[in-house]
Design goal:
globular, 14 helices, alpha/beta, two-stranded antiparallel sheet, single chain, 11% strand, binds nicotinamide-adenine-dinucleotide, 6-stranded parallel sheet
Length: 357
């Protein structure tokens, strides 16, 4: 590692993390520790049962529930939920769900400064970041502010056992993408790199066990540990080409978040491995291949990931525009983002072929 010949700056948020099967039942202690008495519980309509379950765990410390969280954090939903928080005199937000529900909690915190307890039920990682994306009139804007960083995270593997197998795989690869790009981030530190490698290792080791038995709380717990690490990396360092490609495909072609990450990851990493093979060597080692992108591709195939953008409904005719958009206002990337090479990368990802190495 060349870290100790270089200067670096590391930052980490003051977050309290509680971890373990059944830990959700301790939520009242956490509400009290934050000095709150009136939690607003958030879920999606699909996970509405959890709002009622959590009302029970909170004892008298509940102001109400809002069960209307939606994908992409639409501003009208955030305004409605914020108004409800104000009307109910809520003094804390308790978000139970995936990135969409956690995004709504952050949107309320942004508008009110209320503290947040988050209970993730996917591996997406939003719980560990100061980042919020919001959508208005079809346009998504993202900002980073400590105001939206949740104060407490409760990781409870029992809640993830219900995550359908297909979403388990794509959400895991979504989390792994944060760690993979963290390995070459400009603002990485020895600590973010350690977390990235350990997060990738946890998913590599535990995901096959989860797929054999989705109710296995030990294997689920190890993947959730991986999600914590990968999410923390996402919260600490900047992302590059892979996230830009996924934001382009999601924002302009309406492709689904986790599946797009899952398909694109081996291709983006293969692209960058040409420029930073040393930084990606730990990833290549973990996936037992001389090439990091190819190793990830084999792993994704083995765990049954979707492999082709065409299967998400993207038409081949859209690839030229996708390449044009992807090279417009590029994020910092370790390899120059060249239009022709990106077009080739997208072609391989669209067809479900091996990444270009
Ligand atoms: P999601 O929250 O959109 O959930 C998808 C669906 O799965 C929902 O219907 C949800 O209710 C359901 N679901 C979630 N967990 C479940 C479980 N355990 N069992 C059964 N059903 C379950 O999916 P996601 O991939 O977690 O989140 C994606 C969103 O999060 C995107 O909008 C993305 O931009 C955002 N995100 C933000 C950050 C950040 O740092 N701001 C980080 C990662 C993701």
């Amino acid at each position: 590692m060349s870290f100790f010949r270089e200067q670096f700056t590391a930052r980490s948020a003051a977050v309290r993390v509680r971890f373990g099967p059944g830990m959700r039942r301790s939520v009242a202690e956490e509400i009290e520790a934050l000095g709150a008495k009136r939690a607003l519980i958030l879920t999606t309509p699909q996970q509405a049962d959890l709002a009622d379950e959590f009302s029970g765990y909170c004892g008298g410390l509940v102001a109400g529930t809002y069960k209307g969280a939606k994908m992409h954090t639409p501003v009208d939903v955030s305004e409605e939920a914020t108004q409800q928080a104000r009307d109910l005199g809520a003094d804390l937000v308790l978000a139970v769900g995936g990135g969409s529900t956690i995004g709504l909690g952050k949107a309320i915190a942004l508008r009110t400064d209320l503290p947040q307890i988050v209970v993730p039920t996917t591996y997406a990682g939003s719980e560990a970041t100061p980042v919020i994306g919001q959508t208005e009139n079809g346009v998504k804007t993202t900002q980073s502010t400590p105001k939206v960083q949740p104060e407490v995270i409760i990781y409870d593997a029992e809640l993830v056992t219900t995550l359908p197998v297909e979403m388990t795989v794509t959400s895991a690869l979504n989390a792994m993408a944060h760690a993979a790009e963290g390995l070459y981030a400009q603002d990485r530190s020895p600590i973010s790199t350690l977390m990235a490698i350990e997060g990738l290792r946890a998913f590599r080791d535990a995901l096959p066990g989860v797929l054999d038995n989705p109710a296995d709380t030990a294997a689920r717990g190890e993947t959730l540990y991986g999600a914590w690490l990968c999410g923390t990396v996402l919260g600490q360092v900047g992302m590059a080409l892979h996230h830009k490609l996924c934001h382009t495909l999601g924002g302009s072609f309406d492709l689904p978040h986790a599946q797009t990450h899952a398909i694109m990851l081996p291709h983006s990493i293969a692209y960058n491995a040409q420029a930073v093979p040393d930084q990606l060597a730990p990833l290549a080692d973990l996936f037992d291949d001389s090439h990091a992108g190819r190793g990830l591709h084999r792993f994704a195939k083995k765990v049954g990931s979707p492999m082709a953008l065409k299967d998400l409904g993207l038409s081949e005719a859209d690839l030229d525009r996708a390449a044009d958009l992807a090279v417009t206002k590029p994020y910092w990337n370790p390899r120059p983002v060249e239009r022709d090479a990106i077009r080739k990368l997208l072609q391989a990802a669209w067809a479900g072929e091996e990444p270009v190495v």
